[in-house]
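Input sequence (215 aa), recorded before submission:
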Amino acid sequence: MNKLIAIWMLFGLALPAWAGDEVKLEDIKLDTSMAAVERGADTLMNVCHGCHSLKYVRYRDLLTAGIDKKKVDTWRGDQALDTAMTGLLPDDTAMQMYGKIPPDLSLMTKAREGGTNYVYSYLIGYYITAEGAASNHVFPATRMPDMLGISGATDAAQRSEIQHKAQDVVSFLAWASDPHEEERRRLGFYVIAYLFVLTALLYVVKKQIWSRLKK
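Predicted structure, token format:
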């Protein structure tokens, strides 16, 4: 019993230390407009797609969303429209370079606790340590370089531009995690309207039938 109490006391003392190590995530207002999604797609395809895949998103999904066809054709090259957006870096090369395969980004905003806030905070969380090495406030063990270059930003205007790019990337990744959301919503409205009309008709029929039975 005494051992159990001692363990719980140690656990209680450790909690403040653990809480102190937690990083406060930035709280962003997600821009769901297609303009932001397309800007994010531009940045991601130019900066991230060399290593990262989006295996649950197909190039046709980009067209369906309204992204410029010329851009999509440039990104997919000779691949078919129904091809998944796989990364350009072979797995064996990735293992040699980073010691692990870069994660797929399709569901990244749903897979991480904190969602879009986590991904945004991670992208702008790079900094240069006192030893001159790059690290990340949100995920210090990351192997990914500072692709947006915020750790080297020299003034507020440059940081602001990078932050806007990060927000657009997050907008695209939020869309990529569920590219058919808008389509489902539109279908949902039609279904609800159909059920409403059907319910009204059935009510009228029911009233007519019961009025005859009362006679």
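Checked by second reader. The CA atoms of residues 41 and 172 lie 6 Å apart.
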